[in-house]
Structure formats: C-alpha cells, structure tokens
C-alpha cells in the first residue's frame, strides 16, 4: 500500500514534467519519510480524539519520534506487528497522560534514569541497519543534542505550569529508554 502511494505520487509528478527518472530513488525515499510523518500526525489525531487528550498525545509523540530517529532502539520484524504494538503503546500512554495529574517522585526518578541512559546508549544498531563508527558518532551527537533540547523544553513547561507537556516528554523518554535497552540486549 505504502509503495503504491509513493509510486503514484512519483508517477504523477514525472508525468507533469516536475521529476525525471534519475531522481526516482531520492524522491521515493523522501516520499516515504513524508508518509511516515503524515502517519504520526494521523495517530496523534485519532488517539487524541479517542482519549480526549490532544496536548498529551502531541507532547508524547512528537518528542518520541524526533529523538527515536537518531537514537534507534528495537524494531519488530513484521511491519504489522510494529503498527499494532505502537498503537497499544500510544493508546496506553495517552490514557496515562489523560488520567494522572502530577509528576510524582517515581516518574521523576524514571525520567532522570531515562535521560542518563539515552545519553549513554544512543545510538543503537538494529538488525536491518548497522551503523559504522562515523555514523554512530554523528547519530549519537544528534541524539544527545535533541535530548538536551527536549529536556530544556520540558523543564520550561514544568516551570510555567504546563505539567501535561512535561509528562508527555518524560513518558516519551522513558519508553525510548526501554526501547534502547531491549535493542542493546537484542531481544527483538
């Protein structure tokens, strides 16, 4: 389905003379990234509507997806398993963000542990994508930079009293920490 959509978009643009055949590889990759971003925002809209917690979903999924693309972690082998698992994970986090009202000591301790472990472990290789030394250095630097920015944003929102945004970012970091640990241990 995804490949058909990408091919359709490329064919449409090449028929109009916007793209040539030699640009196919680059643009099919770019359209794949675009479709992934659209899927992320669709998930935010759907789960945000179901849970009634738009801000919580946005504050969880946006930092999670941005940091995860540099940090790595586990990847399930079948795409459908990944979609189902991600759906349950996102829905569960959305429910937690909608119900719990404050950042407790346990969540705060887990968040600090997550920040430290992400800082140390990122990036993690996957079965499908092994990183060489240079790529690890680049992705690690980017992951740490994004992590620092996200933590600063979370602290600013915490100080301003927007606890749900801080909780969303903290939960994203905790889930990513678990993903990095399982990816490092090669459980999946």
UniProtKB/TrEMBL annotation:
GO terms for molecular function: peptidase activity. One of its GO terms (biological process) is quorum sensing. One of its GO terms (cellular component) is membrane. Keywords: Cell membrane, Hydrolase, Membrane, Protease, Quorum sensing, Transmembrane, Transmembrane helix. Signal peptide: none annotated. It comes from the Bacteria. The chain crosses the membrane at residues 38-67, 79-97, 103-124, 145-164, 170-187. This is Accessory gene regulator protein. It comes from Blautia obeum.
